[in-house]
């Protein structure tokens, strides 16, 4: 059976009851994992703990926890606690986020994200292994820290959200998995090659890194609903490219959509959200999303797998209603004969 995960925002836009119902549906359909992130809403670990208490097999991933928001020691303790509560189902997704979030929301300097991420992962690995952590780094200096409540899993999987070349190499060198967002299907082979360079530094192969792109999906129920889903996806993509700093703008520009990305940024900067969404070309959107009826969505997801996605993570555009989420989850559920 081919593995597939899903992401659902943990904000209060989705009630606890609805979130649990979606998680239970995913658990019953054989989904591999539920991923959620944190921004200005609820924290990832409290929400994942709630989901853990209502599911049996669904793995639980932070997607993502930023390396600037918690010390590595408390992060190790927290992921171990989730692993204990869930009986060995925790997965740790990490990322550096960006300057706007780190400095504006957390009030700490956004300095040396690559070097800091490296130290962060090294310390967490040491702590989760159960030994004493004595660490002398540029950012973290620790003495005699030891966890007395180790995780259930011998090795808690650590995934990295990365887009830039150096970050991709770091992913290959240190991580168990990769969590790209808005990764063009056509670029996946090239991006995996950059991860391979890092993997070779640790005597590893690209197959040692699970490629898990977030893919925004919408299984439509008829022509009118298809147009609605397309509108939601265009608007959400415009928000990322035009309003979320430089990471996604640069990523889509490198994917061959520099003209569209600039038009999106210009329109967004002027406050014209509709124009920004309209600047997302058909080719640009088709390279990163899954949209259509149930069979078309399955076919498009298969194309992402053929391009190198090991475990796609189904994601939903802002404004997707509960019925569409359930319908999309059912359409893309793992096939027993896959």
TrEMBL record:
* Keyword Oxidoreductase set for record: yes
Which CDD domains does this UniProt record tie to the protein? Tetrahydromethanopterin_reductase
Q: List, in alphabetical order, the Gene Ontology terms for molecular function in this entry.
A: oxidoreductase activity, acting on paired donors, with incorporation or reduction of molecular oxygen
- Transmembrane stretches in the record are none
Q: Return the InterPro entries for the record.
A: F420-G6PD/mer, Luciferase-like_dom, Luciferase-like_sf
Where do the Luciferase-like domain residues begin and end?
Answer: 17-310
Query: Sorted alphabetically, which Gene3D superfamilies does this protein's record hold?
Result: Luciferase-like domain
**Keyword list, A-Z:** Oxidoreductase
Where is the secretion signal located? none
Name under which the protein is recorded:
Luciferase-like domain-containing protein
Species name: marine metagenome
